[in-house]
Amino acid sequence: MKAIVVGAGVIGSSIAYRIAEAGAEVTLIDANRVGAGTSATSYAWVNACEKINPRAYYTLNMAGVRTHRRVAEEEFKGSNWLHRPGVIQWQSAGAEAEGFGDAEGDKVDVLRSWGYPAERIDAKQLAELEPDVDPATFEQEGAIYYPEDGWLDAPVYAGTMVRTAIARHGLKLLLGHKVTALLVRNGAACGVVLQNGETIEADVVVNSGGRWANEVVGAPDFELPLAPTVGLIAYTTSSDTSLRHGMRTPLVNCRPDGAGRLLLRANDIDKTVPADSDPVPANPAAQKLLERTIKLMPALKGVAVEAVRIAIRPIPADGLSAIGPHPALKNYYVTVTHSGVTMGAFIGEAVTAELVHGRQVPELAEFRPARFFGPAV
Ligand SMILES: Cc1cc2nc3c(=O)[nH]c(=O)nc-3n(C[C@H](O)[C@H](O)[C@H](O)COP(=O)(O)OP(=O)(O)OC[C@H]3O[C@@H](n4cnc5c(N)ncnc54)[C@H](O)[C@@H]3O)c2cc1C
User: Fold this and answer.
1) FAD dependent oxidoreductase domain: which residues (predicted)?
2) Same domain, 166 and 289
Protein backbone atom coordinates (compact mmCIF):
# COMPACT_ATOMS: atom_id res chain seq x y z
CA MET A 1 0.00 0.00 0.00
CA LYS A 2 1.18 3.50 -0.90
CA ALA A 3 0.13 6.24 1.51
CA ILE A 4 0.54 10.01 1.61
CA VAL A 5 0.31 11.80 4.96
CA VAL A 6 -0.07 15.58 4.70
CA GLY A 7 1.21 17.44 7.78
CA ALA A 8 4.16 16.54 10.00
CA GLY A 9 2.71 17.75 13.30
CA VAL A 10 2.37 15.55 16.35
CA ILE A 11 -0.47 13.67 14.62
CA GLY A 12 0.84 13.29 11.05
CA SER A 13 4.29 12.24 12.30
CA SER A 14 2.73 9.56 14.49
CA ILE A 15 0.63 8.25 11.61
CA ALA A 16 3.50 8.27 9.12
CA TYR A 17 5.68 6.37 11.60
CA ARG A 18 3.13 3.69 12.38
CA ILE A 19 1.92 3.15 8.81
CA ALA A 20 5.50 2.86 7.58
CA GLU A 21 6.29 0.48 10.43
CA ALA A 22 3.34 -1.66 9.31
CA GLY A 23 4.96 -2.02 5.89
CA ALA A 24 3.29 0.65 3.76
CA GLU A 25 5.24 2.89 1.39
CA VAL A 26 4.69 6.30 3.00
CA THR A 27 5.41 9.86 1.88
CA LEU A 28 5.03 12.52 4.58
CA ILE A 29 4.63 16.03 3.18
CA ASP A 30 4.82 19.32 5.07
CA ALA A 31 4.79 22.89 3.83
CA ASN A 32 7.13 23.84 6.64
CA ARG A 33 9.33 21.85 9.06
CA VAL A 34 8.51 18.80 11.21
CA GLY A 35 6.50 19.84 14.29
CA ALA A 36 6.45 23.54 13.40
CA GLY A 37 2.66 23.98 13.22
CA THR A 38 0.26 24.23 16.18
CA SER A 39 2.22 21.41 17.82
CA ALA A 40 5.00 23.94 18.46
CA THR A 41 2.66 26.42 20.20
CA SER A 42 0.78 24.33 22.72
CA TYR A 43 0.45 24.01 26.46
CA ALA A 44 0.89 20.33 25.58
CA TRP A 45 -0.56 18.91 28.80
CA VAL A 46 -0.99 15.21 28.13
CA ASN A 47 -4.19 14.49 30.01
CA ALA A 48 -7.70 13.11 30.02
CA CYS A 49 -8.83 14.83 33.22
CA GLU A 50 -9.94 17.93 31.31
CA LYS A 51 -12.01 15.84 28.89
CA ILE A 52 -14.50 14.09 31.13
CA ASN A 53 -17.63 14.93 29.20
CA PRO A 54 -18.69 13.10 27.08
CA ARG A 55 -17.22 9.94 28.54
CA ALA A 56 -16.22 8.69 25.08
CA TYR A 57 -13.99 11.76 24.71
CA TYR A 58 -12.34 10.92 28.02
CA THR A 59 -11.78 7.35 26.82
CA LEU A 60 -10.20 8.60 23.60
CA ASN A 61 -7.91 11.00 25.45
CA MET A 62 -7.03 8.36 28.03
CA ALA A 63 -5.95 6.08 25.18
CA GLY A 64 -3.73 9.00 24.11
CA VAL A 65 -2.23 9.37 27.59
CA ARG A 66 -1.48 5.63 27.87
CA THR A 67 0.03 5.41 24.40
CA HIS A 68 2.40 8.35 24.98
CA ARG A 69 3.58 6.82 28.24
CA ARG A 70 4.18 3.45 26.61
CA VAL A 71 5.98 4.96 23.61
CA ALA A 72 8.18 7.33 25.63
CA GLU A 73 8.91 5.07 28.58
CA GLU A 74 9.05 1.59 27.03
CA GLU A 75 9.34 1.67 23.26
CA PHE A 76 11.78 4.63 23.18
CA LYS A 77 13.31 4.10 26.63
CA GLY A 78 15.45 7.09 27.60
CA SER A 79 13.46 9.44 25.35
CA ASN A 80 13.46 13.13 26.26
CA TRP A 81 10.04 14.46 25.24
CA LEU A 82 7.52 13.38 27.89
CA HIS A 83 7.85 15.22 31.24
CA ARG A 84 5.74 13.95 34.13
CA PRO A 85 6.35 15.95 37.32
CA GLY A 86 2.59 16.22 38.01
CA VAL A 87 0.04 18.98 37.45
CA ILE A 88 -1.80 21.09 40.05
CA GLN A 89 -5.23 22.54 39.37
CA TRP A 90 -7.26 24.94 41.47
CA GLN A 91 -10.79 23.65 41.62
CA SER A 92 -12.50 26.69 40.15
CA ALA A 93 -10.25 26.34 37.10
CA GLY A 94 -11.57 22.79 36.87
CA ALA A 95 -15.18 23.94 36.83
CA GLU A 96 -14.36 26.31 34.00
CA ALA A 97 -12.50 23.65 32.05
CA GLU A 98 -13.83 22.54 28.69
CA GLY A 99 -16.17 19.58 28.98
CA PHE A 100 -16.43 19.51 32.77
CA GLY A 101 -19.84 21.20 32.94
CA ASP A 102 -22.24 18.26 33.02
CA ALA A 103 -20.29 15.63 34.92
CA GLU A 104 -22.08 14.34 37.99
CA GLY A 105 -20.44 14.82 41.38
CA ASP A 106 -17.05 16.03 42.45
CA LYS A 107 -14.39 15.97 39.77
CA VAL A 108 -11.84 14.12 41.89
CA ASP A 109 -14.38 11.41 42.78
CA VAL A 110 -15.43 11.01 39.16
CA LEU A 111 -11.83 10.73 37.96
CA ARG A 112 -10.78 8.36 40.71
CA SER A 113 -13.76 6.11 40.03
CA TRP A 114 -12.45 5.89 36.45
CA GLY A 115 -8.94 5.05 37.65
CA TYR A 116 -7.36 8.46 36.96
CA PRO A 117 -4.78 9.37 39.65
CA ALA A 118 -6.06 12.59 41.28
CA GLU A 119 -5.68 13.85 44.86
CA ARG A 120 -7.18 16.73 46.80
CA ILE A 121 -4.52 18.97 48.31
CA ASP A 122 -4.74 21.82 50.81
CA ALA A 123 -2.69 25.00 51.19
CA LYS A 124 -0.04 23.25 53.29
CA GLN A 125 0.51 20.53 50.70
CA LEU A 126 0.60 23.14 47.93
CA ALA A 127 3.28 25.08 49.83
CA GLU A 128 5.36 21.90 50.02
CA LEU A 129 4.88 21.12 46.33
CA GLU A 130 5.33 24.69 45.05
CA PRO A 131 6.88 27.05 47.63
CA ASP A 132 6.99 29.99 45.18
CA VAL A 133 3.18 30.18 44.95
CA ASP A 134 1.63 32.92 47.10
CA PRO A 135 -0.84 31.14 49.44
CA ALA A 136 -3.14 34.18 49.21
CA THR A 137 -3.90 33.24 45.58
CA PHE A 138 -4.96 29.74 46.61
CA GLU A 139 -8.62 28.93 47.07
CA GLN A 140 -9.96 27.74 50.40
CA GLU A 141 -11.65 24.68 48.95
CA GLY A 142 -8.26 23.32 47.88
CA ALA A 143 -6.80 22.07 44.65
CA ILE A 144 -6.45 18.88 42.65
CA TYR A 145 -3.07 17.27 42.20
CA TYR A 146 -2.54 14.91 39.26
CA PRO A 147 0.68 13.19 40.32
CA GLU A 148 1.22 11.28 37.08
CA ASP A 149 0.44 14.07 34.60
CA GLY A 150 2.83 16.15 32.58
CA TRP A 151 3.52 17.60 29.17
CA LEU A 152 5.10 16.72 25.86
CA ASP A 153 7.79 18.51 23.86
CA ALA A 154 5.73 17.82 20.75
CA PRO A 155 8.25 18.86 18.06
CA VAL A 156 10.94 16.67 19.68
CA TYR A 157 8.56 13.72 19.75
CA ALA A 158 7.49 14.30 16.12
CA GLY A 159 11.11 14.59 15.01
CA THR A 160 11.99 11.25 16.58
CA MET A 161 9.01 9.52 14.96
CA VAL A 162 9.99 10.90 11.56
CA ARG A 163 13.72 10.16 11.84
CA THR A 164 13.05 6.64 13.10
CA ALA A 165 10.58 5.96 10.32
CA ILE A 166 13.10 7.18 7.72
CA ALA A 167 15.92 5.07 9.18
CA ARG A 168 13.98 1.88 9.86
CA HIS A 169 10.95 1.87 7.61
CA GLY A 170 11.88 3.80 4.46
CA LEU A 171 9.62 6.82 5.09
CA LYS A 172 9.98 9.52 2.40
CA LEU A 173 9.90 13.04 3.86
CA LEU A 174 9.08 16.04 1.69
CA LEU A 175 9.49 19.34 3.53
CA GLY A 176 8.83 22.83 2.18
CA HIS A 177 6.12 21.59 -0.19
CA LYS A 178 2.56 22.80 0.17
CA VAL A 179 -0.26 20.51 -0.91
CA THR A 180 -2.92 22.54 -2.73
CA ALA A 181 -5.42 19.85 -3.75
CA LEU A 182 -6.29 16.20 -3.55
CA LEU A 183 -5.86 14.23 -6.75
CA VAL A 184 -9.20 12.57 -7.47
CA ARG A 185 -10.12 9.79 -9.91
CA ASN A 186 -13.48 7.96 -10.08
CA GLY A 187 -14.68 9.36 -6.75
CA ALA A 188 -11.55 8.31 -4.89
CA ALA A 189 -8.44 10.11 -3.72
CA CYS A 190 -5.39 8.87 -5.60
CA GLY A 191 -2.77 11.39 -4.54
CA VAL A 192 -2.06 15.07 -4.03
CA VAL A 193 -1.18 18.14 -6.08
CA LEU A 194 1.72 20.27 -4.84
CA GLN A 195 1.91 24.06 -5.16
CA ASN A 196 4.65 23.68 -7.79
CA GLY A 197 2.21 21.71 -9.96
CA GLU A 198 3.78 18.30 -9.36
CA THR A 199 1.51 15.42 -8.44
CA ILE A 200 2.25 12.44 -6.20
CA GLU A 201 0.09 9.33 -6.44
CA ALA A 202 -0.92 6.95 -3.65
CA ASP A 203 -3.61 4.45 -2.68
CA VAL A 204 -4.70 6.50 0.30
CA VAL A 205 -4.29 10.11 1.46
CA VAL A 206 -4.37 11.11 5.15
CA ASN A 207 -4.97 14.78 5.84
CA SER A 208 -3.26 15.73 9.12
CA GLY A 209 -2.99 19.39 8.19
CA GLY A 210 -4.44 20.51 11.55
CA ARG A 211 -5.95 24.01 11.44
CA TRP A 212 -5.00 24.22 7.73
CA ALA A 213 -6.70 20.92 6.82
CA ASN A 214 -9.21 22.63 4.52
CA GLU A 215 -6.42 24.31 2.55
CA VAL A 216 -5.06 20.88 1.63
CA VAL A 217 -8.11 19.62 -0.27
CA GLY A 218 -8.68 22.09 -3.13
CA ALA A 219 -12.49 21.57 -3.28
CA PRO A 220 -15.23 22.60 -0.80
CA ASP A 221 -16.82 19.12 -0.89
CA PHE A 222 -13.80 17.62 0.83
CA GLU A 223 -13.57 20.20 3.61
CA LEU A 224 -14.59 19.79 7.26
CA PRO A 225 -16.60 22.35 9.26
CA LEU A 226 -14.14 23.87 11.73
CA ALA A 227 -14.54 26.24 14.69
CA PRO A 228 -10.98 27.38 15.35
CA THR A 229 -10.03 29.49 18.37
CA VAL A 230 -7.00 31.69 19.04
CA GLY A 231 -4.37 30.71 21.62
CA LEU A 232 -1.56 32.98 22.81
CA ILE A 233 1.45 31.67 24.68
CA ALA A 234 4.02 33.90 26.37
CA TYR A 235 7.49 32.62 27.28
CA THR A 236 9.42 34.33 30.08
CA THR A 237 13.11 35.02 30.44
CA SER A 238 15.04 32.51 32.55
CA SER A 239 14.38 32.73 36.26
CA ASP A 240 15.50 31.09 39.50
CA THR A 241 12.01 29.78 40.30
CA SER A 242 11.70 26.31 41.76
CA LEU A 243 8.42 25.73 39.89
CA ARG A 244 8.29 22.08 38.83
CA HIS A 245 4.65 21.25 38.16
CA GLY A 246 2.21 22.26 35.50
CA MET A 247 -0.15 24.80 37.09
CA ARG A 248 -3.76 25.40 36.06
CA THR A 249 -5.01 28.28 38.20
CA PRO A 250 -7.74 30.89 37.82
CA LEU A 251 -5.01 33.50 37.25
CA VAL A 252 -2.82 31.73 34.70
CA ASN A 253 -1.78 28.33 33.43
CA CYS A 254 1.98 28.04 33.57
CA ARG A 255 4.70 25.45 33.55
CA PRO A 256 8.45 25.16 33.22
CA ASP A 257 9.79 25.33 29.67
CA GLY A 258 13.49 24.70 30.28
CA ALA A 259 16.35 26.70 31.88
CA GLY A 260 13.99 28.45 34.32
CA ARG A 261 11.83 29.84 31.52
CA LEU A 262 8.08 29.56 31.99
CA LEU A 263 5.32 29.06 29.45
CA LEU A 264 2.19 31.10 30.25
CA ARG A 265 -1.37 31.10 28.96
CA ALA A 266 -4.98 31.68 30.10
CA ASN A 267 -8.31 30.78 28.52
CA ASP A 268 -10.02 34.07 29.38
CA ILE A 269 -7.12 36.10 27.96
CA ASP A 270 -7.12 33.99 24.76
CA LYS A 271 -10.70 35.15 24.13
CA THR A 272 -9.48 38.77 23.92
CA VAL A 273 -6.70 38.11 21.38
CA PRO A 274 -7.39 38.86 17.71
CA ALA A 275 -5.96 36.22 15.33
CA ASP A 276 -3.81 38.89 13.62
CA SER A 277 -2.44 40.23 16.92
CA ASP A 278 1.33 40.87 16.94
CA PRO A 279 3.26 37.96 18.53
CA VAL A 280 5.72 40.27 20.31
CA PRO A 281 6.68 40.54 24.01
CA ALA A 282 4.90 43.91 24.29
CA ASN A 283 1.57 42.32 23.26
CA PRO A 284 -0.91 43.46 25.97
CA ALA A 285 -2.22 39.89 26.43
CA ALA A 286 1.32 38.65 27.08
CA GLN A 287 1.96 41.45 29.57
CA LYS A 288 -1.30 40.58 31.34
CA LEU A 289 -0.19 36.94 31.57
CA LEU A 290 3.10 38.07 33.10
CA GLU A 291 1.34 40.35 35.59
CA ARG A 292 -0.89 37.47 36.71
CA THR A 293 2.06 35.09 36.95
CA ILE A 294 3.88 37.50 39.25
CA LYS A 295 0.72 37.76 41.36
CA LEU A 296 0.72 33.94 41.59
CA MET A 297 4.45 33.77 42.31
CA PRO A 298 5.74 37.13 43.64
CA ALA A 299 9.31 35.76 43.59
CA LEU A 300 9.18 36.18 39.81
CA LYS A 301 9.15 39.99 40.03
CA GLY A 302 11.64 41.31 37.48
CA VAL A 303 11.16 38.42 35.04
CA ALA A 304 10.09 39.57 31.55
CA VAL A 305 8.26 38.16 28.56
CA GLU A 306 10.92 37.01 26.13
CA ALA A 307 8.77 35.67 23.30
CA VAL A 308 5.15 35.32 22.26
CA ARG A 309 3.53 32.87 19.89
CA ILE A 310 -0.03 32.85 18.63
CA ALA A 311 -1.67 29.73 17.25
CA ILE A 312 -5.08 28.71 16.04
CA ARG A 313 -6.50 25.57 17.61
CA PRO A 314 -7.61 22.96 15.06
CA ILE A 315 -11.17 22.35 16.31
CA PRO A 316 -14.00 20.64 14.39
CA ALA A 317 -17.32 22.54 14.53
CA ASP A 318 -18.76 20.63 17.52
CA GLY A 319 -15.56 20.90 19.56
CA LEU A 320 -14.78 17.17 19.38
CA SER A 321 -12.33 15.19 17.26
CA ALA A 322 -12.87 14.36 13.58
CA ILE A 323 -10.86 11.22 12.81
CA GLY A 324 -11.76 8.80 10.05
CA PRO A 325 -12.75 8.50 6.40
CA HIS A 326 -14.25 11.60 4.78
CA PRO A 327 -17.67 10.59 3.46
CA ALA A 328 -17.30 12.60 0.22
CA LEU A 329 -14.30 10.69 -1.09
CA LYS A 330 -13.00 7.13 -0.97
CA ASN A 331 -9.42 6.50 0.17
CA TYR A 332 -9.33 9.86 1.92
CA TYR A 333 -8.93 10.01 5.70
CA VAL A 334 -8.85 13.08 7.97
CA THR A 335 -7.52 13.67 11.49
CA VAL A 336 -8.43 17.10 12.83
CA THR A 337 -8.65 17.58 16.57
CA HIS A 338 -7.95 19.73 19.55
CA SER A 339 -5.98 17.90 22.27
CA GLY A 340 -3.89 16.53 19.44
CA VAL A 341 -0.79 16.53 21.61
CA THR A 342 -2.47 14.17 24.06
CA MET A 343 -3.87 11.95 21.32
CA GLY A 344 -1.09 12.03 18.71
CA ALA A 345 0.63 8.74 19.48
CA PHE A 346 -2.68 6.89 19.84
CA ILE A 347 -4.06 8.33 16.60
CA GLY A 348 -0.94 7.03 14.83
CA GLU A 349 -1.69 3.50 15.97
CA ALA A 350 -5.45 3.77 15.49
CA VAL A 351 -5.23 5.06 11.92
CA THR A 352 -2.78 2.28 11.09
CA ALA A 353 -5.14 -0.34 12.54
CA GLU A 354 -7.95 0.99 10.35
CA LEU A 355 -6.12 1.74 7.11
CA VAL A 356 -3.55 -1.04 7.02
CA HIS A 357 -5.12 -3.84 9.04
CA GLY A 358 -8.80 -3.10 8.30
CA ARG A 359 -9.67 -3.17 12.02
CA GLN A 360 -12.14 -0.55 13.29
CA VAL A 361 -10.95 1.18 16.46
CA PRO A 362 -13.80 1.49 19.00
CA GLU A 363 -12.36 4.65 20.66
CA LEU A 364 -12.90 6.50 17.38
CA ALA A 365 -16.50 5.36 16.80
CA GLU A 366 -18.12 8.56 18.10
CA PHE A 367 -15.67 10.90 16.42
CA ARG A 368 -16.11 10.20 12.73
CA PRO A 369 -16.09 13.11 10.24
CA ALA A 370 -19.27 11.64 8.71
CA ARG A 371 -21.36 13.08 11.58
CA PHE A 372 -21.05 16.52 9.98
CA PHE A 373 -22.51 15.47 6.65
CA GLY A 374 -25.81 13.74 7.48
CA PRO A 375 -26.95 10.34 6.21
CA ALA A 376 -25.64 9.15 2.83
CA VAL A 377 -28.19 9.43 -0.04
C1 LIG B 1 -2.58 27.61 23.05
C2 LIG B 1 -2.82 26.13 22.82
C3 LIG B 1 -2.79 25.26 23.91
C4 LIG B 1 -3.00 23.90 23.70
N5 LIG B 1 -2.93 23.07 24.77
C6 LIG B 1 -3.04 21.74 24.59
C7 LIG B 1 -2.85 20.85 25.69
O8 LIG B 1 -2.59 21.27 26.81
N9 LIG B 1 -2.95 19.51 25.45
C10 LIG B 1 -3.23 19.01 24.20
O11 LIG B 1 -3.31 17.80 24.04
N12 LIG B 1 -3.43 19.85 23.14
C13 LIG B 1 -3.34 21.18 23.31
N14 LIG B 1 -3.50 22.02 22.25
C15 LIG B 1 -3.91 21.47 20.95
C16 LIG B 1 -2.76 20.81 20.22
O17 LIG B 1 -1.62 21.64 20.25
C18 LIG B 1 -3.18 20.52 18.77
O19 LIG B 1 -4.38 19.76 18.78
C20 LIG B 1 -2.11 19.72 18.04
O21 LIG B 1 -0.85 20.39 18.09
C22 LIG B 1 -2.53 19.51 16.60
O23 LIG B 1 -1.52 18.75 15.97
P24 LIG B 1 -1.62 18.47 14.41
O25 LIG B 1 -0.52 17.52 14.08
O26 LIG B 1 -3.02 18.11 14.03
O27 LIG B 1 -1.40 19.90 13.74
P28 LIG B 1 -0.09 20.77 13.49
O29 LIG B 1 0.91 20.60 14.55
O30 LIG B 1 -0.55 22.15 13.19
O31 LIG B 1 0.51 20.12 12.18
C32 LIG B 1 -0.09 20.33 10.92
C33 LIG B 1 1.03 20.39 9.91
O34 LIG B 1 0.46 20.42 8.62
C35 LIG B 1 1.26 21.24 7.80
N36 LIG B 1 0.42 21.71 6.71
C37 LIG B 1 -0.70 22.44 6.79
N38 LIG B 1 -1.22 22.68 5.58
C39 LIG B 1 -0.40 22.06 4.70
C40 LIG B 1 -0.41 21.96 3.28
N41 LIG B 1 -1.36 22.53 2.54
N42 LIG B 1 0.59 21.26 2.70
C43 LIG B 1 1.57 20.67 3.44
N44 LIG B 1 1.62 20.77 4.78
C45 LIG B 1 0.65 21.44 5.41
C46 LIG B 1 1.70 22.37 8.73
O47 LIG B 1 2.89 22.98 8.26
C48 LIG B 1 1.90 21.63 10.05
O49 LIG B 1 3.25 21.25 10.25
C50 LIG B 1 -3.27 23.40 22.39
C51 LIG B 1 -3.28 24.27 21.32
C52 LIG B 1 -3.05 25.62 21.51
C53 LIG B 1 -3.03 26.53 20.33
Assistant:
1) 3-352
2) no
| Ligand 1 pocket, residues with Cβ under 6 angstroms | 6-12, 29-32, 36-39, 41-45, 178-179, 208-212, 215-216, 231, 233, 265, 311, 313-314, 337-342
Task: Please name the residue whose Cα sits nearest to atom 2 of ligand 1.
Answer: 42
pLDDT digits (tens, 9 = 90+) for 47-96: 999 998 899 999 999 999 999 999 999 999 999 999 999 999 985 544 44
Residue 60 and residue 51: Cα distance in Å, rounded? 9
Statement to judge: residues 337 and 238 lie in one domain:
no
Q: What is the pLDDT of residues 22-44, one digit of tens each?
A: 999 999 999 999 999 999 999 99
Q: Are 69 and 351 in contact (CB under 8 A)?
A: no
Q: Which residues contact 233 (CB under 8 A, 6 or more apart)?
A: 41, 42, 43, 263, 264, 265, 308, 309, 310, 311
* Residues 198 and 222 both lie in one domain: yes
